[in-house]
Amino acid sequence: MAPSLWPALQSRLTDIAADVLGASPDRVEVEFEVIPHGFGFRGGELSTTSLVRGQIPPGCAQEVRVALMRTICDMWCAVTGCSVDELIVSARDRPAPDS
Q1: How many Å apart are CA 14 and CA 25, to the nearest integer?
Q2: Separation CA 28–CA 42 (nearest Å)
Q3: C-alpha closest to that of 92 among 59, 45, 47
Q4: 88, 48 contact by CB (below 8 A)
Q5: Mean pLDDT across the chain
Q6: Would you call 96 helix, strand, or coil by DSSP?
Q7: Whole-model pTM above 0.85?
């Protein structure tokens, strides 16, 4: 994926988190990690897979989690042109703050 797409992806991921989770945009962190060419393989071929992983508030309803991941998947494929077979989206529970 071209780094020129990063600003659009970052902006849209922030918007999705705000819309679906009610997150404050300033609390949404987006980082990109590039796997060097020749270091990622899938089925014996060079991988074109993207991994989008995030954390959601503890106790978030399953329906909200699914809506978040589905919305991210749709957006990512639209912006990057990848297929759903080239994308993994995960959302784990953020650790609860210490009381």
Answers
A1: 6
A2: 30
A3: 59
A4: no
A5: 90
A6: coil
A7: yes
